[in-house]
Each structure stands twice: as structure tokens, then as C-alpha cells.
Amino acid sequence: MALPAILTNAKPAAATWRALGLLAILLIVLFVFSGRVSMVQVMDNARQAAPLGLIALGQALILLMGRLDLSVGATAGLANVVLAASFAGNMDNMATALAITVFFGLLVGLANGILVVVLRIPAFLATLATSLVIAGAILVYTGGSPGGSIPAGFRVITEGWLFGILPWSVVIWTACSLILLVFVHYSLKGRKMLLSGANARAAQRNGIAADRMVIFSFVLASFMATLGGILLSSITGMASIGIADTYTVDSIAAAVIGGALFSGGVFLPAGVAAGSLILFFLQSLLYVLSLPPAARFVLQGSIIVIALALSNFKKDR
Amino acid sequence: MASLKPANHSPTLIAVSGLSKSFGRNIVLQDVSFSLGRGEVLALVGENGAGKSTLMNILSGNLSHDAGDIRLKDATYKPSSPADAARNGVAIAHQETAVMPDLTVAENVFFGREPRNALGMIRQRQLHSDFTQLAASLGFDLDGRKLGRHLSAAERQLVEIAGAISAKPDILILDEPTASLSSEAAHSVIRLMEQLKAQGTSIIFISHRMGEIMEAADRVVVLKDGALTLAAARGEFSEDDLIHAMVGRKLENIFPARPARENAPVRFSVRGGTNENLPEIGFAVRRGEVLGIAGLEGQGQKPLADALCGMAPFRSGTIELDGEALKLKSPAAAIAAGIASIPDDRKHDGLALSLPIRLNMSLFAITERAKGGFLPLAYERDFVEGARERFSIRSTDMEQPVGELSGGNQQKVVFARWLAHEPKLLVLYEPTKGVDVQSKSEIYHLVDELSQKGVSVILISSDLMELIGLSDRILALYEGRITGEIARSEFSEEKIMRYAAGLPGKRQAEGMEAAHV
Amino acid sequence: MFEGSLRSNLLTSLPALALSALLIILTAYMSPNFLSDSNLTNLSSRLLPIGLVALGEAMVLFAGRIDLSVGAIMSLATAIMALTSASLGWLAIPLALGAGLVCGVVTACGVNFLRINPLVMSLATAAIVKGVTMLLLPSPGGEVDYAFYDMLFGAERLLSAPLIMSLIAFIVIAVVMNWTRLGRSIYAFGSDPRAAFANGISSLKIDLVVFGMSGMLAAAAGIVLSIRILSGDPLIGESYTLDAVSAAILGGVALQGGRGNAIGVFFAALALVLINNTFNLLDIDTSFQNIAKGLIFILALVLFMRGKAEEH
């Protein structure tokens, strides 16, 4: 109650606490199963969950605007193929490779935004169509066998550890979460995004350019997906087709576990981070229990249903 | 028109006792009891949100009650669905919004009761000839083949009424059957009620028009905040009794006493304003004046409000504010010019219901004070806290989601938003829809206070009491045009209704405008 | 016969009709093979699965909902056929249809009881169904009895079994939608759920019917596919989700619900098959086809949706 005004906006929401609690329970279960507790092991998992974390952050931005982006997986895959090809295994190409990759990512976001805002196509259909075009373009460009590779020097961003305790990718992930948290909850533009996400019509009536906010959010989300794709490339070190396809639904699941609502107006980066980790740990758990990989899809779907059912149930009371 | 014969001694057809209903913690009906005889007309009266619709929906099978008992023809009546209610002889004509847009008039009227062949297929030709017959017998001028979406509000209302009557019910429920009708058409509906009554049909109708209640009702039941405040038979109540029972206090205590202000200069004017939905509109508002705009439903109120706040701008015409020509091309432009607007549908157009009071209230205040693109959070908190006290907004704290507040408190949040800087013109569109009496009175006093400071106010409303109580002058709107002007000394419900039905009136509005330009 | 709202509804089919007629003329002109019996049989065998799945999607859209699980359900049906038709024979077909129905009911319950947005609920159903399918059949394989193939695709002639089956499916659904109370209720619910509620329409019933039908029709489409490829494939249905939505929108079905007609969807499905056929005749690379499909989909959305959104 007596929180200073500056902290009110950063106070974790109930949904965030719930996600963090779930994460804690999951970690305990994991520790019990594996029989030992180590911070390094947790960090190593977080390191690998970072691509999902970044992509889910982007998805959460779109959900904040009350839309859905079904092209984030394809966009991350595009980043993977483009980065590997433009790097061509040579560290000297880093600046150009990153620039080209980010450029393509922003292009996808802009295309999505224009389809949704200017041509008034429902977001999920527009992004479904762009994902199809991206997948086709990748096939045409690579002829089915993508080339190039990520030089070892660059792979430090996912393989390297800061002071030997924090993986660089976790640092990047945390920084992105914090920047977006500050942007949405502390800047005027972010406030306008929140208001137009929760009720676009009302925002427009109050003089907010809600349409522009939507385009902006799509560009930002594609940027985050591209960043996720870059981290993913750094982990695998090579290009492969369809590498990030499952990330689309995963990112929705992660955001929803973290408290995002389809009605818009909610943005909880800490919740999204917890959601991404939960999803990743659950998948590790499936692996530990040696369940077939197909079980992850069942898990994905069930998690979305349960998380949304719980949030609707809470709203009713 | 001949008045309806009272039917005091007819046997009881339906008896409601101790009826209660709540949604969550929100009690919407509390211990309501009344009865209705065969061939009687009962008027159900109350303000918006008083519980009338809930009561209708319980009787027609759309909702079930929590407690209490309904006896219909001496048997317990608890319909499980509208179809079940229909089987028991209860039919409802909803407000015009219940017409299904992609079905034709005939399909709407006979929905669920279509003639079918042996295979269960609908016999379209039979359906349409049935409709033609029905429309002729009711004297409705309706094209059975038109799609619902292409009908006017008045036509949709007739479709609803025809649908309910076609079920040949014992009890016919009419939910505000005349709200969108001109006085002419409203009279024919009252005549129709008289006919049905003569055939032994009992009728429950909701109305806000005192005239027709006094004329047609054998009994009245008045609800206020879900509880019954008056149940009386013809001759036992007066108009004043009804208003007192509806509002719970004397009208004088609700509306501020306003001095006349006839000589102030014109502050805002529109000349020849047109767009797709407004053929041509012109009027002027003085400094500190409250200009009421009256009209039947769907006569251009929404397009006018949208044009004034920049949502659906005028395509041509001149707009002047304080002597300066103005283009209201967007909401941002209107806001920048000093025009504040309160939308009729606050849930969709005014508020982000899931967000806290603070975020909903502070937009304009923080926009001015943002430093380097960052929010002035301490200032925001002070502003919101101050406004919350000033408007006595009842809430746990400023972080409570607006959606959890009552209608009145929600509306006060919408008002408070505009207080960051005092507007020059305030456009109010149904400002007290679904608002409790206490908040209503507070809103009226606030509007008065602003107008004392020189803010011009345009009050677009369907609530005649509100128009008469608050306006300095009233214009009547009909089919998107101003059809009459009534000075404060001549205010009367009847006069407003006459002009609102498009009957010729003096066009003083333009005269005054010309005098000042 | 065509009184009332039916007339305005039939008008929505005209663009798809014109498009498919145009494509027929174009392809017939470009390739002399087009009118050969074998090509026509080939076309109708491709029309049947896409037609069935589009028909199911259209029913969901009539009610103002959407179903993104149809592709996954198709894959599931192929897996069930591939795994059980050897041992169960004919009984594999009702088993697969039943599985489709269950999937649809699951989505309907999520939408109705848990009040989850249909789009997301069907996406979740799709993920679960995909998982189950991959548990059953991790990679393409299994076997479908050749007897089924003979029955369905055996004869090469214009009025082949697949074409007749497509026509029957579309006519039955068109009749149900336009001439029965159930069909009218679905349209009414799609065009304005609140007005429909006021008129006593139960949303649960509508959801169960449309998602159930969509699941069953998707399963039927999957059965046809599995018979055509004589095996199962856990991913074969994926691309059909978008095709189904494309066909419905191209056929004049409004995403907001309440408008459109099965007849239009038929011609739109035909047009999609013809477009694919043209690509093949022109020897266009499959990867380009994907891009083209995406662009056609966007074009269809732009052309058909914008006008409607404004009309609303």
C-alpha cells in the first residue's frame, strides 16, 4: 500500500506470483528426481530456455495489444537461416550478418503490422499467411539445404558465462525483459500501448493513435523473435529448416502461463520469463521421464487450456 | 384516443411473490411481489438498472430466479428456457436490438416456429405468406423479405412486437416497445395493446413515457435498485408518485438550480455540418450554456456525438469555437481544441475495464507532464488521489480495476479524466445511462459547476427528466436534422416529444446563430 | 425455394463461382490434358479432402467461431486408418470419424464451459491432437487396405465416386444450413450472439454442433487422404488448416459469422484445387507454391474481408 509511486508500476501481479510459485515447485520436483541441487544446472537450463524467453516476450507484446502472432516461429527460423548464410562461418562478417538478420526480422514485423492495420486482416490470419510465405521463401532460397554456419567466436553469447556464474544469454534475456518492462510501464508511449491494448476503441477516442501502436508492437515482436532466432543459431551453430516452428505455440503457452490475457492490456515480463522456464523445465522433465518427444505437444496444448481456464475462472468470481 | 377500461375484477393470471435474483455479490432483484389478472395491462417502471430487464428475463425464461415463487394459472412457473416459457403462454418482445441481422423480417418473426414439411425443412413460401397475413392483421407496414440489418430502429421494434404476438400468448411482455417509435407509431402500439387486451391477453410493458403509462396501464409496478417501491392500480397513483417511487426523492433535490444565461456570447457553432449519417445540422451553444438535444432512438444522436468528438468527422460545413474556425478531423484534434466528450457506451468507448482506476483516469494529466517520454508517477498518484476524493469515487484504492466499480463510479472516472485541463466544450452523450441516483445527482452538479465557469455543454440524451432538469435550451433531433427549439420557459415532455417526432417546429436555432455570426 | 435471407446468402458465392469458372477455362486452354479422364479424376480426388475440411471450417465460421485444429484432426484420422484398417477393416472408418467428433467436442467444451477464445482453444486442441497422433504414428507409415482405394478412386471417369461424394456432402450441408431450424439458428448465432440468446438459442448446442461437425468432416477428409496415399502421415494435415480457412473466405463466408454459403465454399475449394493443378501444369516448384499460396490467402483476405468488415 505505502509503496513509493515509482515502484507501483513494477509490482508483480498475482499472475506473476502464481507463475513464479509454479516454477519453484517444478524446480523442487526436478531436484528430487535428479537427486542433486545445483545452481549451475538451473542456469544451464535457463541458458537454453533464453531463445524461447525472448520469443515469448515478443508474443507477450502482441498479446498486450489483444492480438496473436502466429509467425514468431517462422521469423526466428528465418533469422537462423539468414544469420548462418550471411555469417558463413567467418567472424569478420559479424556486423553485416547481424544487420541483415535484424533487417529481415523488422521487415516481417512491418509486413504483419501493415496487413493487420492497413488492410484490416485479423492478426492471427495475417501472421499465419506471412509464416507460410516465410517458410516458402526459406525453401526457395536454400533449395531445402541451408548453408553457412555460425563462427565459434560468436557462439560465446550462448556458450560463455559471465564471471562463470551467469550465462551471457541469460544476461541478454534479463536485459531485454527489463528494458521492455521499463518501456511499457514507465514511458508515456508504453502507457498508450497499455491503454490501447486493453481497449482500442476507447484509446482512439482519447486521441491515442492505437493503430500505430499495433504496427509498432508487431515490429517489436518480430525483433524479439529475430533475437531469439539469433540465440538459437548460436546454440546450434548451424542453419536448419523449421528449427523454430514449435516456438510459435510454445511462446503463446509461455506468455499465457505468465499471466497474459487474450483480451489484451496485460504485460508481465517476469511472468513471461517464469512461463518460458516452466515450459522448458517441463520438457526436460518429459525427457528425464523418458517419455516420447510427441508428449511435448500434448503438454503444450494442455498447458494453454489449463492456464486460460484458470484465469477465466478467477475473473468470474 | 379512448382510454382503456380498467379491469380490476379479472381473475389473477400470474402472481409473483418474493422474487429475488443476484449475480455474484450484486443483488439485482430483491423480494419483488405483484400480480396480474387476465386481460390486464401492467406497466413496469423504473430507471435503467433498476432490475426491470432482469425481471423480464426471468418471466420469459432467459434467466432463472434464486428465490421466490411465480404462480401462473395456479401452477408453479419456473421456465427453463424461452421455448419453455412460450409453451406456457408467455412471450416477450425484446428491445429492437434482439432482431437477428442476417435473417429476414419474416424469419425473425417466426423464429423457432417456422412451418416445416415432413422432412423437417422450413417451408419458405408458407413462412412468407404467414408473415404477410400477420403483418396485415396487425397493421404493420413491413417487408418480410428485408434483412434485419437493413431495418430502421422503429422497424426492428415492430418486428420484435410482431414476433411475440404471433405466438398468441396469454401473457405478452413488451420491453420498451415505444422507445424508438414516433408518437404516431407509439399510439398505434398502444391501440394494439388495447385490442389484445380485449381478446383476453394480459400485457406487461416497460416504459419511460409517463403519458402512455397513465393512459394504458391498469396497474403499475415501480422498481428501484432491484426492490419494489410502488405497486398500485389505476386511479391510485399520479405521475409524481411514479417519479418519486422511481428516483426515491424529489426531483428538485437531484438537479441543481440553474440561473438563466441568455445573453452570453456564442462559444461553439456548427453550420451546414454533414456526413454520411447527418444530412445537415446547424446549431450554436453559448458560453456556459447547457444545450439539450432530444430525440427518439436512432435519429442521429450517435453520428452527431461522433462528429463532435472527431471519431466520425463532418465532411463539410463550418465549425467555430470561440470565433476560430476549426476542423475536427480526429479525436486528437478535438481534444487539442478543448472539446471533451463523454461517450454513451462507457464500457466500450470510454474505459479500459481491466485496467486500474489510476491508468484510466490519468491519461491527459500525465501527457502534459511527461519528462523525456517518462511518466510522472508521483504526480499521477497525487492527481488520481485528488480526483478520487473530489468525485467521491467509491473504490478500495486507485489500483482497483475500473470494471469492478458500479456504473456511477465508472462514469465519474470518465469525467475525472477530463479535469486535467478544463475543456471549452463538453459533449455529453447519455451521461447517466446505468448510473445510480446519487451519482447522477453528483454528475448533474458537476456539469452545472463547469458551466458556471463558462464551459459550454451539449447534452444529448433520451432521458426527458434529465433534459428538462439540466438544459437551458433544448433542440429536437429528427432524422439527423434539428427540427425544433424549445426555450427553458416552455419545457414540457409533450412538447419535446412532438418536435422529436419530426413535426414542424420553429427553427430558432439557426436564427440565433445568424444573429451572432 | 430461394426466398428470404437465402437469396442474399447465395450472392456471396458468386465471386468463387466466377473464379473457378475462369480457372477452368484458363487451364483447359493452357493444357490439352486438362479434360482427360485421368486429370479430371485426379482433380476430383484432390477436391474431396479439401472440400470436406473446408465445409467443416465453414460451418464453424457460420457460427462466428473458428477452428484451427482441422489439419491436426486430418493427420490423426490418417494415423488411425493406417494403424487399424488392417485389423478392423471397415470399422476403422467410424473409429476415425468418432475420434474427429471427440476432438470437436473437446474444443466446443473449452470454448463454452471454460470460455476460452475459440481461436486459442482450437490451437490448443491442435497441439494435443498432434501429440497424440505422433504418439500413435511417429513417422509416416502403416498401411491402408488397397480395397478402399479401389472403391474410392478406382474408376477414371468424370462422375467419379469422389466427385459424387463431394457434391452430396455440400448439398446436404447447404440444405441443413438453409432449410432447417438448426441451420438458421447457427446463422443467427453467428450474426449476433446476443440477439440469438434473447431468442432462446443455446450457445452450447451451437458450439457442439459446429465443432463436432468440423471435427468429423476433418476426420472424413483425413480418411480420404489416407486412402489416397494408402498409409498414414502424422503431419500431412498441417497445411490443410490454412487451405480450409482460405476456401471458406474465398467462398464468401464472413469471419464475423452469420454470412456465407456452402455452395460458395464448394467453388472456392474447387478453385484452390485448380490453382494447385495449374501450378503443377506450369511446372512451378513446390516451394514457390507455398509462397504463392500465402500470397493468394492474403489477397483473398484483402478482397473478401475488407468489404464485409466495413459493411458491418
Low-pLDDT stretches of chain C? 307-312
Number of helices of chain A: 14
- What's the N-to-C terminus distance of chain C? 27 Å
Overall morphology of chain A: globular
Query: Average pLDDT across residues of chain A?
Result: 89
Q: In terms of per-residue confidence, which ranges of chain A show pLDDT below 50 for 5 or more consecutive residues?
A: none
How many alpha or pi helices of chain C? 14
Oligomer: heterotrimer
Structural class call of chain C reads mainly alpha
Q: Record the strand order, biggest sheet of chain A.
A: 1-2
Distance between the termini of chain A: 23 Å
Radius of gyration of chain A: 19 Å
Q: How many individual domains of chain C? A: 1
Q: What number is the mean pLDDT of chain C?
A: 87
Helix content of chain A: over 70%
Number of strands of chain A: 2
Domain ABC transporter (chain B): 14-250, 249-504
Family (chain B): Belongs to the ABC transporter superfamily.
Pfam family, one (chain B): ABC_tran
InterPro entries (chain B): AAA+_ATPase (IPR003593), ABC_carbohydrate_import_ATPase (IPR050107), ABC_transporter-like_ATP-bd (IPR003439), ABC_transporter-like_CS (IPR017871), P-loop_NTPase (IPR027417)
Furnish the topology, listing elements before pairings.
The complex is a heterotrimer of chains A (317), B (517) and C (312).
Chain A: H1 5-8, H2 14-34, H3 39-64, H4 72-87, H5 94-117, H6 123-142, H7 156-159, E1 161-162, E2 166-167, H8 168-186, H9 188-198, H10 200-205, H11 210-236, H12 247-257, H13 269-288, H14 295-316
Antiparallel strand pairs in A: 1-2
Helix pairs in contact in A: 2-13, 3-8, 3-11, 3-12, 3-13, 4-5, 4-6, 4-11, 4-12, 5-6, 5-11, 8-9, 9-11, 12-13, 12-14, 13-14
Chain B: E1 12-23, E2 26-37, E3 41-45, H1 52-59, E4 67-72, E5 75-76, H2 82-87, E6 90-93, H3 105-109, H4 124-138, H5 153-166, E7 171-174, H6 183-198, E8 202-206, H7 210-216, E9 219-224, E10 227-233, H8 239-247, E11 266-275, E12 278-286, E13 290-294, H9 301-308, E14 316-321, E15 324-326, H10 331-337, E16 339-342, H11 346-350, H12 357-361, H13 363-369, H14 377-390, H15 407-417, E17 425-429, H16 437-452, E18 456-460, H17 464-470, E19 473-478, E20 481-487, H18 493-500, H19 508-516
Parallel strand pairs in B: 3-8, 3-9, 6-7, 7-8, 13-18, 13-19, 16-17, 17-18
Antiparallel strand pairs in B: 1-2, 1-4, 4-5, 9-10, 11-12, 11-14, 14-15, 19-20
Chain C: H1 5-11, H2 14-30, H3 37-62, H4 70-88, H5 92-112, H6 118-136, H7 146-153, H8 161-179, H9 181-191, H10 193-198, H11 203-229, H12 238-250, H13 262-281, H14 286-311
Helix pairs in contact in C: 2-13, 3-8, 3-11, 3-12, 3-13, 4-5, 4-6, 4-11, 4-12, 5-6, 5-11, 8-9, 12-13, 12-14
